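Hello again, I could really use a second opinion on something today. I've been staring at a protein lately and its backbone has me curious. You're getting the sequence in one-letter code plus the fold written as tokens. I'd be grateful if you could look everything over and explain what you see. No rush at all, and the record is pasted right below:
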Amino acid sequence: MERQSVSSSNIASIGYDNATEVLEVEFLNGSVYEYRNVTPVVYEELMNAASHGSYFNREIRMSYPYEKIG
């Protein structure tokens, strides 16, 4: 999955697959997580948020099933 770099104090890049509704987040420490069942609307809100990290922590981190993949 291709990820887009973002300006964040904790997140390095974010990717999304519309077909599978999988959100991929790479953190600055190098770890990568996949979050499942993330709707396109939530992805768009994340990418358009004033703070990617704050939105992620508030709306995604503990709200979706996830797996560490890297």
Remarks:
- The chain has two helices and five strands.
- The longest helix spans residues 40-48.
- The CA atoms of residues 29 and 70 lie 11 Å apart.
